[in-house]
């Protein structure tokens, strides 16, 4: 992991994610790309041109302040930073920045809608998950501070279907090895599940082999609703990091994945890593 992308709107919630980006950069000795955008409606007015220049200057100044804040911290004083300020839509630019900068991981905050009993993933973060080919680490508003959150136990949801590109699991494996964490694969079995026991066993062996020396285990649970089954697991087992693959091969799967990620994130205080398959 060489380059971590940290998009920020300079809000309080995004600061929580900043700490995670810095801590992972320290662990992997990776560069951090700080990204912010600014945008005004198109106009030929000289006043709006002046406002755009002011917003551009404020954006760059905000990123410079973040860099200086990090470098003053003893643990992060040797980190390298790139500052990226662009004109345009914040959410739509994030995947482009990740691609241009050859990012290996996007770390961003998510905030639940106030007044609701369930916490839902922020619409910005969900859109980035759906449109980016770069893995996204979403940090909930009420997550533990990064320095107190040790990724000792990682859980990954799996339908135990064949993974077409094992390389997509690289972020999970890299983090698990660097943090010396165990990985538990979680499979929710529905009554009408078409996968046979033999197929499950083969895929479990494949995942274990893929993880190499990482300590692994498998957790099976029966539930007619996958979302409820995974939520029960998170609430009871309380992993330090929860991981999912985002399948995008069909409209149904996109909607299905969107439903799961939006409802799981975040009833708990657990960071969510979503990898594109």
CATH uppermost class of the largest domain:
Alpha Beta
Going by helix content, strand content and strand pairing, the class is: alpha/beta
Domain module tally = 2
By CATH, the superfamily of the largest domain comes out as HUPs
Determine the fraction of residues in helical runs and give it as a percent range: 40-55%
- Order of neighbouring strands in the sheet with most strands: 3-2-1-4-5-10-9-6-7-8
- Provide the residue-averaged pLDDT: 84
Q: Proportion of β residues?
A: 15-25%
Instruction: State the helix count.
Output: 8
- N- and C-termini, Cα separation: 18 Å
Question: What would the principal axes of the Cα set say about the shape?
Answer: elongated
* Gyration radius, rounded: 20 Å
- Note the run of SSEs as H and E: EHEHEHEHEEHEHEHEHE
CATH topology term of the largest domain: Rossmann fold
Number of strand segments: 10
Q: Would you identify the CATH architecture of the largest domain?
A: 3-Layer(aba) Sandwich
Low-confidence stretches: 112-121
Largest sheet: 10 strands, mixed
